[in-house]
Every structure is written in structure tokens, then in C-alpha cells.
Automatic annotation (TrEMBL):
Superkingdom of source: Eukaryota
Keywords per UniProt: Signal
Protein name (Swiss-Prot/TrEMBL): Wall-associated receptor kinase galacturonan-binding domain-containing protein
InterPro entries: WAK_GUB (IPR025287)
Signal sequence, renumbered to the chain: 1-23
Its membrane topology: Single-pass membrane protein
Location(s), subcellular: Membrane
GO MF annotation terms: polysaccharide binding
Principal cellular location given in the protein's record: membrane
One GO location term (cellular component): membrane
The Wall-associated receptor kinase galacturonan-binding domain, residue ranges: 33-96
Pfam families: GUB_WAK_bind
The organism of origin for this protein: Phaseolus vulgaris (Kidney bean)
PANTHER family named in the record: LEAF RUST 10 DISEASE-RESISTANCE LOCUS RECEPTOR-LIKE PROTEIN KINASE-LIKE 2.7, OS01G0690200 PROTEIN
Amino acid sequence: MVMWREMLLLVIFLVFVVQQICATHEQEHSMDCPTSSCGKITNISRPFRLKRDPIHCGDSKYELDCENNVTVLYLFSGKYHVQAINYNNFTIRVVDPGVEEPSCSSLPRYFLSESNFSDGYFIDVVAPYLSYQYQSHQSGPEWNSLWKHIIYLNCSHPVSEKNKYVNTAPCVKWQSKGYMYATAADYLTAAELKVGCGVKLVSLTSWWGLDANESSYTDMNRALLYGFEMSWLHFACDHQCRKSSDDECSFNTSTLKLQCAPLCQDKFGILLVRCGTGIWSQLLAYPQCKDCVS
Ligand SMILES: *[C@@H]1O[C@H](CO)[C@@H](O)[C@H](O)[C@H]1NC(C)=O
Ligand SMILES: *[C@@H]1O[C@H](CO)[C@@H](O)[C@H](O)[C@H]1NC(C)=O
Ligand SMILES: *[C@@H]1O[C@H](CO)[C@@H](O)[C@H](O)[C@H]1NC(C)=O
Ligand SMILES: *[C@@H]1O[C@H](CO)[C@@H](O)[C@H](O)[C@H]1NC(C)=O
Ligand SMILES: *[C@@H]1O[C@H](CO)[C@@H](O)[C@H](O)[C@H]1NC(C)=O
Ligand SMILES: *[C@@H]1O[C@H](CO)[C@@H](O)[C@H](O)[C@H]1NC(C)=O
Ligand SMILES: *[C@@H]1O[C@H](CO)[C@@H](O)[C@H](O)[C@H]1NC(C)=O
């Protein structure tokens, strides 16, 4: 009697196990994960994934979350709102949630600059997001910065260069004493700082309309609202260039496609360099942050 019951349990157990194995097998074979959607970002696909997507979809380094119908990206100690994922040029554009209020009095919530992304000298190729994109132009490949810094300064005296240092006064109400300015700069360099001024806050923008000399503070606020782009090109490169370690991968700005070019040994046989060039010309092509403040 007891035997029968145990046999039955065993059979039920085995059927369950076989079903489980088949189910996971099926999941693994359905490599084409459906694209995910959250709020206005309707096309979330590889390498990106949403937190609650099936485990085999996307890459965990590129995980996004969906909070109250907004796609969010956790970046360092901050939480940014995703504005666009560009699969055409391998960038993602995010905005600091602090500037999203519809008034120019809103300020970025986080202090974020180039130095959060790298040590300021060489590019960290294992990080999921880079501040530069390796692009091939007519003149040859180079690292192109994807953003400008918006630097908020508090100064003990008024600053006269009104084109460069824009008064935030009509918009922003600061707690501290002194004269508050905002300026747009490529790097956070000592040269950008005036004597008697301190850096209050730094944020980023990829809105190139600020290139003009006569930006108002409203322009800067609009630029922050546009957000900043980061590159995930190196992820795409690892999957597209076959022998990724022996290939140089860049974004061809004419064809708007990834381009894999073979690398050759330099004349001392130590390093891999672009074929037909010397090692020094290539090292010099790396972006460097001179006189960095922090
Ligand atoms: C989520 O956002 C999308 C796009 O902005 C909108 O169409 C949809 O109605 C929103 N859903 C909810 C539940 O708020
Ligand atoms: C979504 O992204 C994939 C690439 O991952 C692309 O092939 C497809 O055309 C995109 N769809 C839309 C609606 O943008
Ligand atoms: C960026 O680095 C600065 C200085 O180390 C730090 O105070 C700030 O919190 C970092 N930003 C984010 C978003 O983690
Ligand atoms: C990437 O593509 C988006 C959408 O087409 C565009 O707005 C953005 O400027 C491009 N970024 C770069 C670095 O080419
Ligand atoms: C971009 O690609 C085109 C077509 O493959 C090629 O002719 C051109 O030389 C490439 N541009 C650069 C700067 O490498
Ligand atoms: C800038 O603000 C800080 C903190 O509020 C204050 O300690 C400092 O004295 C200010 N600097 C100037 C130059 O006003
Ligand atoms: C900005 O102003 C400087 C001097 O005030 C001038 O040399 C430069 O050409 C101007 N740049 C633009 C883009 O107008």
C-alpha cells in the first residue's frame, strides 16, 4: 500500500522535473527577447534590459528600471531619467531629474563631471558608459566628447565677462551669499575658474546650441533639460568586430556605421597600433584632462 503511494509521488515528481527542464530549455532557445517598453521609451532591447525582464534578456551592466512609468538609469550615486536610447549611433540620453520642473529655477540634483567617468587620463573601457565616442572622420579617427559641463560658481565679487559667466539671479534663488554664475565649458579646468569664485555644482549637457557666445541662463537651463548622451559603442564593438582585441572599432561618421579595422604590431613589437601609424600619434589621440580641478 505504502509502496503505491510512494511510486505515485515519485512519478509526479519526475513529471514535474522533466517539465521544468523542458521549460528552461525552451527559454534559453528563444534568444529573441521581445523589446520592453516603459513610458516614452518604447524600444528597450539588447544590450539594455528592464529590471523585471527575463534573466537571459539584455546585459546586466545595461539594466534600467521602470519607476512610475519613467525609465530610470542608476549612474554612480545618482538616478537619471532616460530620454532616448539611440541604437543608430550607440548612445543613451539621460536627464538629471532635478531640472525637470517647468521653470528655470530648477537645479540639477547631482554633482556630475568628467571625473566621475574616468581618472581623467585614460578611458575606462570596462565601464558600461563612456563620455567619449571613438569616431572616424575624414582626418582619421578621434575621441569626440559627447557633452559640455555646466558649472555653477559662487563668487565673492561681480564677474565682468557677461558673455561667458551668466548671472543665474532672476531664475535661481541660492541660500548662500555672493554672486552666482553659470558657465558652459568643455572641461572642468582651473583656467575656467575666476579668482574668488568657488564651484557650487556641475552638471552635463549634449545640447550644442550653447556653442554660441551669447547664451542666457534660460538657454543653459534648456540645455540641462535636454540632458546628456553617453556612449555604449564599445559594447557594440565587442559584439561586432570579430577578433575584438586585434581590431580597432570606431563609428564612421559618413556611413553612420560601426567600422572594424585590423591593428598591427608597432615597430618595436610591443603594442598593437592602427596599421600604418606610429605608437605616439595614437597615444596623443587619447583625450586628456589638463589641469583638472578634481
Ligand atoms: C505611460 O507613459 C506613456 C507615454 O508617455 C503614456 O502613453 C501612458 O498612458 C502612461 N501610462 C500610465 C499608466 O501612466
Ligand atoms: C528598435 O530597436 C531595434 C534594434 O535594437 C531596431 O531594429 C528596431 O527598428 C527599433 N524599432 C523601433 C520602432 O524603433
Ligand atoms: C561625482 O563625483 C563627485 C566627487 O567625487 C561626487 O561628490 C558626486 O556625488 C559624484 N556624482 C554622482 C552622481 O555619483
Ligand atoms: C545620436 O542619434 C540621436 C538620434 O538620431 C541624435 O539626436 C544624436 O545627436 C546622435 N549623437 C551622436 C553623438 O551622434
Ligand atoms: C567610412 O566608410 C566608408 C565606406 O566604407 C569609407 O570609404 C571611408 O573611408 C570611411 N571613413 C573613414 C574616415 O574611415
Ligand atoms: C560659496 O558658498 C560657500 C558655501 O555656501 C561659502 O562657504 C563660500 O564662502 C562661498 N564663496 C564665495 C566666494 O562666495
Ligand atoms: C566668442 O567670443 C570671443 C571673444 O569674446 C571670440 O573670440 C569668439 O570668436 C566668439 N565665438 C563665437 C562662436 O562667436
